[in-house]
Amino acid sequence: RLCVQVGAALPVDVLAYEEKSLCAVLRVISGGLVKLWSALTLQGFYQNRRCAFRVLQTSPFLLALAGNSRELVLD
Q1: Alpha-carbon span 11 to 71, nearest angstrom
Q2: Residue 10 to residue 8: CA distance in whole angstroms
Q3: CA dihedral angle for residue 67, residue 53, residue 24, residue 3, rounded to 10 degrees
Q4: By percentage, how much of the chain surpasses pLDDT 90?
Q5: Count of alpha carbons within 13 angstroms of residue 8, beta-carbon side
Q6: Residue 71 in 3-state DSSP?
Q7: Is residue 67 pLDDT above 90, yes or no?
Q8: How far apart are CA 64 and CA 46, in angstroms?
Q9: What's the DSSP call for residue 8?
Q10: Is residue 8 a contact partner of residue 36, using CB atoms and an 8 Å limit?
């Protein structure tokens, strides 16, 4: 069975945006992650200009996005 939603709204918060690198931190409820990711994947043009989105990291905890634990140096 295939379920398709057309014109569905999903609240998304832009928590941070850096114009130089064109990177943003978005917040969406966990149940909306797949919908948002799918919508970004399908978006090929914005205002008649080609565009693409790349998801660099996801986390259920906002604090986890603040740093990379693999690069942590302990004294």
Answers
A1: 33
A2: 7
A3: -100
A4: 9
A5: 11
A6: helix
A7: no
A8: 30
A9: -
A10: no
